[in-house]
Amino acid sequence: MKTLFKIIIGILIVFLIGIVLYFGMIAYTFGSDMCGNTIVETKISPNYSHKIILFERNCGATTDFSTQISILKKEEDLEDESGNIFSADSDQGKAILTENGIINIKIEWLTDKKVLVEYDKSARIFEIEKSIDGIEIEYKKL
Asked: Between the N and C ends of the chain, which has fewer C-beta atoms within 10 Å?
């Protein structure tokens, strides 16, 4: 009887350890940031030192997809994080989305040190930076 009891306790302990490991692996795999970026357009600066990246950021079913922009040095890769100069969404459908799933937006290098960003006037804006890394950013509503 004692042997049977020890076997049952052993099986329960192994089962509980398995459950803890399973949920730990799920938490590690998905982490706190379940967002993903999809690059829509990249433009290199006239002097080839920087690039402007237009991308869609998707953070799951409970949030609207967002349109974001980052300016990076040419050799840098876009990390799985928010844009560093611009972030907006459609404000629950008020701004029309393009076929790529982003708000209507245009990006253009005017000079080596100046960028023009034109975006849908109905978009809900979360972040607008006026300059980064010595590059001035001008914004206009469409």
From this structure: N
Whole-angstrom Cα distance, residue 127 to residue 105? 15
Same domain, 20 and 43: no
CA Rg, the chain, in Å? 23
Could you tell me if 28 and 41 lie in one domain?
Answer: no
Residues 42 and 9 in one domain: no
Question: What is the amino acid identity at position 54?
Answer: L
Model's pTM, two decimal places?
0.75
**How many Cα atoms sit within 13 Å of 119 on the Cβ side?**
25
Residue 3 burial (CB count, 10 A): 7
Placement of tokens 């290098």 in the chain: 109
Residues 27 and 72 in one domain: no
72-101: per-residue pLDDT in tens? 999 999 999 999 999 999 998 899 889 888
- Classified as helix, coil or strand, 5 is helix
Whether the CB-CB separation of 112 and 84 falls below 8 Å is answered with: no
